[in-house]
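input
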Amino acid sequence: MAIPGRLRAFYLSYLSTPASDHSIYRAICRHQVRRILELGIGTGRRSLRMIELAGLLHPLPQVELSGMDLFESRSAADGPGMSLKTAHRLLGRTGARIQLIPGDPCTALARSANRLQPFDLVVISAGLDPQSLARAWFYVPQLLHDRTQVFEERLLPGGGTYSRLVAAGEIRTMAAASVRRRAA
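output
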């Protein structure tokens, strides 16, 4: 990678805002990330940066991003976002293969999980409906391979966020709990 690319990778991984995304960008730098799933795209800023960084570090094959979001169904309480058409336009300019799926996490994953290939990186945004997300964990294990990194963004009491790496055992536990919720 050329010097400008290294500088950009360093900037995104250590100096960019929000700082809660640094661990995600560092994971992209450490691992050959080509296929990304993002639950909750919001304004698309992080999506653009993840695509850019994956393309800088590992130019071939093409980066793929699957994004699930409420898009037009987003309310003011859900935070900032964009329409499906705007998201396609914005992310499509990157040259990455983009697949956008509207809906809350559970509905979107229920509709598409069987058609999706395993991802290298899964990013779950803060502020998603907790009940929908709890039910959505049922579908997550089938979207992973043994090297997949799963990051969950969480809200801090003061209003900020942080991203944490979710361990494989925790994913299995949340998926099993999701099955019990569905049966109840």
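quick obs: The chain has a mean pLDDT of 92.
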